[in-house]
Design goal:
Elements lengths: L12 H9 L38 H13 L8 H22 L6 H15 L14 H8 L12 E2 L2 E2 L14 E4 L6 H8 L5 E2 L6 H5 L23 H14 L14 E5 L7 H7 L4 E6 L2 H14 L32 H21 L6 E5 H6 L1 H12 L30 H22 L2
Parallel strand pairs: 3-5, 3-6, 4-5, 6-7
Antiparallel strand pairs: 1-2
Helix pairs in contact: 2-3, 3-4, 10-11, 10-14, 11-14
Length: 446
Amino acid sequence: MRIHLVADTVGGDGFWDLMANSRPHHVGANGWEIQHISSNDGMAPALQFESVNTPRVMSPWELHSHLSFLFSELKPQQPLAGELQQTVLRYLRRWQALWSRYGDASEGHAEFRALLDAWIVDMRRFRGELTLHNELDFHKVAMIMVLHSACTDASSPVIFGEPRDAPGKRDAEFERPVFVVSSPRSGSTLLFETLAQAQNAYTIGDESHGLIEGIRALHPAARGFESNRLGADAAGSDVITELRARFRAALIDREGAPPPAFPVRMLEKTPKNSLRVPLLTRVFPEAHFVYLYREPRQVLASMIEAWQSGRFRTYPNLPGWPGLPWSLLLTPGWRALAGKPLHEIVAAQWQATTQILLDDLAALPAERVHVIRYDALLADPQAEIERLCGAVDFVWDRPLDANLPLSRYTVSKPDPEKWRRHEAAIYAVLPQLASTIERAELFSRR
């Protein structure tokens, strides 16, 4: 519809003189008196451009400015506030000393990185203990806003927000992260909760809906609610930096402890990510994907139950959508489903998701795509989890019962024949899904 061009400036002497000499105006729409400046015809102005934006090592003055702002936003009379200030001051002084020796020179990057790693570890004891006026956790904000941007040196996986994907370079934070992907209601929560018990797996503890869509550019509203589909073009440098920082700050192991060091093996599962594989491979260059296949009739029945339960309403106020509040992931072409019966809606959701996901996975190197079938997982959990952990290099050290516990998002007790409650509706849509079902079945046997 339109393009906004934004010129951002720190301002030279002339700019700030104009600001200082301007005065409030009680009539003008902008609240300031308008001053006309004549052009110098035939004279090209000498423009001065910014050449320094984000230094590879943040200066102690910038660090102090950011942290002082966060301290000013702390809620008063919190028990650990004094200890936090002493900890921050101690590291700021050491940062200042290193800066006095090296400045931003590459010779000092290793020492800055070592100091920053120690600082991050030392700050973990304040996680969840101090709150800002806006109810956010001080630790999480400090990690995202300050510390994870304080040193983007040559050993970091990100420089100026871009992944270091040159040959021979490895991601120094997210080593071969694993994403479970599938059509919705395929049993991905059960698989995720089981894999999260691997000895070396780190997760954010749940699904990443808010973590991802909390970045404005990644929320479907930013694209007119077209869908949850996100391609590599959605991953600008600022998005890459923020998304990695959000995941990094939220990681915990199976005991609930944050990582003692990086790189780590991350495990993630969010149904909407089945439409975001290109984005994820851009943000996490070493990403691996586990495709979970479940018999489509069972999936469609579970999707119908999910809509009817009211527990999976992802966009309850979706603009232009009538009927039941929108549930599960938002697939391309959803507007054409308005007014259709529920079984046709979920069939279209399943088909769109499966087709897009299989296309994306087929475009990846074969060694980065792994497959597990839901029926095989239930038949022999121990064997299937050990096989999968071996494929993705997770360390598995726990026995599994023959019957896995129910996942947190179970609507009703699993039963292979439960789909027959909706048998007539499901058989009505199966013919239009036949080619996609055949493709998914073949993919699951690879």
